[in-house]
Specification:
Blueprint (H helix, E strand, L loop, with lengths): L1 E2 L9 E7 L3 E8 L5 E8 L2 H12 L5 E6 L6 H9 L3 E5 L4 H4 L6 H14 L2 E2 L6 H33 L2 H4 L7 H9 L9 H38 L1 H4 L6 H11 L8 H7 L5 E2 L9 E2 L6 H17 L1 H12 L4 H21 L6
Parallel strand pairs: 2-5, 5-6
Antiparallel strand pairs: 1-7, 2-3, 3-4, 8-9
Length: 353
């Protein structure tokens, strides 16, 4: 994230872009007057991206692009502009409350995007591609495999509970991993009735699906570890940080300079305390539930691991407990400190020889 006092000091025009799956709507805004110079809607493909650049060339050489959804619908356009060394500003989707009582259209959203970029004292650059994008793709694929595998395991358990007694007896006393293995090896018999045959067939299918998804998740994790180990092995050397946590942190951070301070990184992670003062009470804070929830979960995982295995952290917990802090409050403090240390590590990569 870059700090600027006024975007108009750098450019003459801001091109706001409202992105969608099939089309992108753009509006050129004069930075001096805030007026709309022109509007255009193009297809969301290479030809459309080229049309947008030609559209911008007609209005200014010194320009910036304010794009909503650079990590999803606007990813292709953002990459196209990055190759042309254009100045791209990343924007979040507008909050519904801000336009609830107003008119809604794609060109109007493009105008809003451009004017929002002009109003910001700080503006963010899109996340990088390359290794970061590769990690993001692998994390998404692994998360899907884990969730689907968990669903399949639950369904196996439920079917075993309701299965005919002669089938249920095979699973009696087994834990879920053993149930999956047993179910995957089941065979049908010609003498069984329709209910028993169907139940066994379904159990075997679900168990084998769970096994295949578990292997898929393991393969994704191996690929994630390889990329993280090649890109930032210093993260894996930190206590409580494994390949999945490291990849999650790297995807949120992206590259040096994108996040302007450790306080901003903590806010992104949802671990910056929010003041909740009232009257004479000026020391009250509440939990911040905003920010990147995957990053917040990663910090929580680090905190739990260090509480259990890291002696320095255990000493800190003991000291804060004697001061009257609750376990929940201590974890919140730890997550804030972890965010600070991670940001400093990420921004100041150690020199390797």
């Amino acid at each position: 994230m870059t700090s600027l006092t006024d975007l108009s000091d750098l450019v003459d025009v801001v091109i706001g872009v409202d992105t969608h799956v099939d089309t992108h709507a753009a509006a050129a805004i004069d930075v001096r007057t805030g007026g709309v110079l022109d509007e255009i809607t193009v297809e969301a493909n290479a030809e459309g991206y080229a049309q947008l650049v030609e559209f911008a060339d007609q209005h200014a050489v010194l320009r910036a692009w304010a794009i909503e959804g650079t990590g999803c619908h606007g990813a292709g356009l953002a990459h196209h502009l990055a190759r042309g060394e254009e100045l791209v500003i990343e924007l979040d989707r507008p909050e519904r409350a801000q336009r609830r009582n107003g008119e809604k259209s794609d060109p109007l959203d493009a105008v809003r995007a451009a004017r929002e970029a002009l109003a910001r004292p700080r503006w963010g650059t899109p996340r990088q591609g390359g290794e970061r994008q590769a990690l993001s793709v692998l994390l998404a694929a692994r998360r899907s495999a884990v969730q689907a595998g968990t669903d399949a395991q639950r369904q196996v358990f439920s079917l075993v509970i309701a299965a005919p007694e002669q089938i249920r007896d095979r699973f009696r006393g087994q834990q879920l991993p053993a149930m999956i293995k047993t179910a995957a090896a089941l065979r049908t018999h010609a003498s069984w009735d329709t209910e028993t045959t169907t139940t066994v067939t379904a159990l075997r299918s679900l168990a084998r699906r769970a096994q295949a998804l578990a292997q898929e998740a393991a393969d994704h994790q191996k690929a994630i570890k390889t990329i993280v180990g090649r890109w930032r092995p210093d993260l894996l050397a930190q206590p409580g940080i494994g390949p999945i946590v490291a990849a999650t942190v790297l995807c949120a951070w992206s590259h040096p300079g994108r996040i302007h301070s450790e306080a901003a990184f903590a806010k992104l992670a949802g671990v910056a305390p929010i003041k909740a003062n009232s009257g004479k009470i000026t020391t009250r804070h509440r939990l911040n539930r905003y920010g990147d929830r995957q990053l917040n979960r990663a910090l929580h995982t680090i905190a739990l691991s260090r509480i259990r295995y890291d002696q320095d952290t255990r000493d800190y917990v003991a000291r804060r407990t004697t001061e009257g802090k609750t376990p929940r409050e201590i974890k919140r403090c730890l997550k804030r400190y972890i965010a600070r240390d991670l940001y400093r590590l990420l921004e100041n990569r150690p020199i390797t020889t």
